[in-house]
Amino acid sequence: MVRISIAVALMAALASCGGDKTPSNAGTTASVSTQSSNDTRVAKDVFGHISTSSSQRSESFGGYARGCQAGAAQLPETGPTWQAMRLSRNRNWAQPGTVDFVQDLSRFAATQAGWDGLYIGDMSQPRGGPMLTGHASHQTGLDIDIWMLPPDRLNLSATERENLSSISMRRASGAFTNASWTPQHEAIIKAAASDPRTARIFVFPGAKVEMCKNATGDRSWLNKIRPWWGHHYHFHVRLKCPAGATGCENQAPPPAGDGCADAQTWVNNILNPPPPNPNATPSKPRGPLTMARLPNQCLSVANN
C-alpha cells in the first residue's frame, strides 16, 4: 500500500520534475579543478553554468539523480514534428539515443487527431549533472518532459516558447483526469511506454487509473506507467541505460503486474488522506550534491 510517509521518503530516489515557469540562465564554461573525493564544490554550481557539451564519446555516468553525461547531443530547437520549449534554460540536451526517441515519438504524435507533434520540455543540461533549479533527476541525458498541451503549430518564436504554458490534465488534486484529457493523450503515452527503450513514465495518479480503465488487449505497457506527484502539465519519460553503458546506473525495474491497483491506492489516499504515521522517522535534511558525491567520471566531463 502506498502511504504518504513512504512517498516522501522516496522523493530523493525517484525523479522529481520542476515546474515550467522558472528558467535557468546558461552561462560560460565553469573552471573545474582536478580534485575528486575532496571536491566540496556544489555540483549544480559547476554543471548549471556550462553551456556546451563535452568533447567526449557519448555516455551516461551514474544514476538519474546523481550523474552526468558526456558527448551529449542537442535536440534541434524545431523539427518537422516537435519544438523544444523554454530555450533560455538550455536543457534540450541528451544522449543521442534520447534525441532519436523524441523524434520517433513526435512522429507518432503527429498522426493523432489534433496533434501536430510534441512540445518538448526539459531534457538535460549540456553535460547533465544537477540543475540550478527544478529537478532532482534529468542528470544523465535519459529523462524527457513532454508537454500535455497538444501542439497546433510548430512555428513558435523563442519568445512564444518562453511565455506559452502547458495545460493541466488533473481534477480533484490528481485523483481524476479533467475534460482536457483525450484518447490521443493515452495513445501517445502508450506508444512511449511500449517502446523497448523506455524504463518508466511518470504521470499523476488519476491519469494512470484512467488508462487502466480504458486499456484493452495487451496491458503489459501499463507496468511502465508510474503514478507520481505533479506530472499533470507534462509526462516524464525515463529511458533505460543504453546497451554497453557500463558507467550508467539503471533504476530498479517496476514491480511485476500492471500497477493498476497501486495507482488506485494513490487515488484513494488523495480522496481520503490517511492519518499521519506517528512512528514515522523524520527525514534528515540533505545538503546539495557536491562534486565528490558524483561519479568520478563527472569531473572529466566537466573539464572537457
Cα distance spanning the termini: 46 Å
Nearest-angstrom radius of gyration? 19 Å
* Sequence stretches where pLDDT stays below 50 over 5 or more residues: 1-16, 18-35
Determine the CATH topology.
Muramoyl-pentapeptide Carboxypeptidase, domain 2
Structural class: alpha+beta
**Cross-sheet strand order for the largest sheet:** 8-13-11-12
Strand segment count = 13
The ordered string of helix (H) and strand (E) elements is: HHEEEEEEHEEHEEHEHEEHH
**CATH class category label:** Alpha Beta
In percent, how much strand structure appears in the residues? 15-25%
Number of self-contained structural domains: 1
Characterise this structure.
The chain is of the alpha+beta class and 304 residues long. The protein has one domain: 2-Layer Sandwich (Muramoyl-pentapeptide Carboxypeptidase, domain 2). 24% of the residues lie in helices and 15% in strands. The chain contains 8 helices and 13 strands. It has helices at residues 4-10, 43-47, 96-109, 158-163, 183-194, 205-214, 260-271, 297-303; strands at 59-63, 66-70, 73-74, 78-79, 82-84, 93-94, 118-120, 143-147, 170-171, 176-177, 198-203, 225-227, 234-239. Strand 1 (59-63) and strand 2 form a beta hairpin. Helix 6 (205-214) crosses helix 7. The chain is globular and about 50 Å long. 43% of the residues are buried.
